[in-house]
Amino acid sequence: MSMWVTGANGFIGRHLVRELAGGGHVVHGVGHGALDPADARALGLQNWINGEVDAANLSALAAAHGLPSHVFHLAGGSSVGLSMERPFEDFSRTVASTARLLEWLRSFAPMSRLVVVSSAAVYGADHRGSIPESAAPAPMSPYGHHKLMMEQLCQSYVQSFGIRCMVVRLFSVYGPNLRKQLLWDICSRLRNKQRTLNLGGTGAEIRDWTDVRDVVRLLARVAEGPWQDNFGVINGGSGRGVSVAGIAEGLIGHWGGNTVVQFSGVARPGDPTSLLADNGRVLDMNFDWHIPLERGLADYVEWFRGQARA
């Protein structure tokens, strides 16, 4: 099968390309970032277009390689903080790119299966315990609002034009090659031998942490599994919550040393106190999360130290 990945040069995208190519699929990609042909092939991409997700680039891929059986849409904004600083840029990257992709699929590849990667940020802040997919969306940042707009666009194209689409709302994804957010920040400070880590928030914030290597297995399973309806939403979480303080302590333990963590007690804008998935739909797929958090954190520390030495 021919599978296309938008945003294939990003953190999750690169892992997904390896997963799909390792499963014997032909994978093509479009998105931002320079990749020479040798690097693209080493990643698992048969072809890479460095550019916008737009009709010209999508048609160029189709002319050269035929229509896709599946499209994984990962292109878009990836940071709550950046969406607060540059909301229109985040809108353009997330909502406008999705609109262009959907319009191209409507015109040229309406039978392709579309898997759209969204975010638990659409749920907002006021949740206790696990959150089902049926929970009313209440995003509290431009990032979350734009992800919800993206989902609504997809649903509208399913209802009006027969596009087939599954949305996967990811929670707190981490793993090798993640070069931003909490784990990168903590390891960067540990590398600099800071005796005390001063972090924002309270430390009690609960997140559903999932290793990217499991996440891409889930995305592939969703794409190839049976679809009862032309549109659906799945929580891409494990259903297990761990506090930010627990993550910090785990990283310090694998790093070694006696670094102390302190929290400011001040919540960051757009930062919910709890985001934990009700993972019933994932369990119904007989999907197993293979990488426990303890191993995932150890692997991340090992990767971070290795890339620092490179």
Automatic annotation (TrEMBL):
InterPro entries, A to Z: Epimerase_deHydtase (IPR001509), NAD(P)-bd_dom_sf (IPR036291)
Signal peptide positions on this chain: none
NAD-dependent epimerase/dehydratase domain residues: 4-226
CDD domains in alphabetical order: SDR_e (cd08946)
Known pathway: Bacterial outer membrane biogenesis; LPS O-antigen biosynthesis
Pfam family of the protein (one): Epimerase
Highest taxon listed in the record's lineage: Bacteria
UniProt family annotation: Belongs to the NAD(P)-dependent epimerase/dehydratase family.
Name of the protein described by the UniProt record: SDR family oxidoreductase
Organismal lineage: Bacteria, Pseudomonadati, Pseudomonadota, Alphaproteobacteria, Hyphomicrobiales
